[in-house]
Amino acid sequence: MWPLLHNKKDAIRVVSVTGRLKKHDVALYIRPNGQYVLHRVMKVCPDSYVMCGDSQFTLEPGVKDEQVIGRLDGFYRGEKYHTVRDLSYKIYVAVWCLSPRIRKPLMKIVGYLENKKLKKQKGKKDEKM
After folding, report:
1. What Rg do the C-alpha atoms of the chain give, in angstroms?
2. What is the pLDDT of residues 54-86, one digit of tens each?
3. What is the pTM of this model?
4. What gap in Å lies between CA 127 and CA 112, rounded to an integer?
5. Where are the strands (E) in the chain, listed by range?
6. Measured between alpha carbons, how far is 114 from 6 in angstroms, rounded to an integer?
7. What domains does the chain contain, in order, with CATH numbers?
């Protein structure tokens, strides 16, 4: 779910689902092969969902309610908890899910900025040594 969630840095809080998921909810579900997946609902169909990860472009149709384990309620970035009800999260979702066509250039920009930040942090660590 990058760029929203960062591997080995963020922790998520998943809650059980009552009723059906809504468009843009983030669901934890299990694929028929047993793989656990955390993806966003891109479309709600009468008997299934179409899912896609935030850093992906390929839609995954046919995810059934029985496969869904829970829904993302929020995440910890360091000590700070961010809920899916936060304004900043809602803005992220609105921009990120606006169109798959803008997702690719946005990912390049976010990746560039994150790499630049990591290099800067590494430089500060090297100076201290």
Report:
1. 16
2. 888 788 999 999 999 999 999 999 899 999 999
3. 0.77
4. 23
5. 10-15, 26-30, 36-44, 49-52, 60-63, 68-77, 80-83
6. 11
7. 10-98 (2.30.30.140)
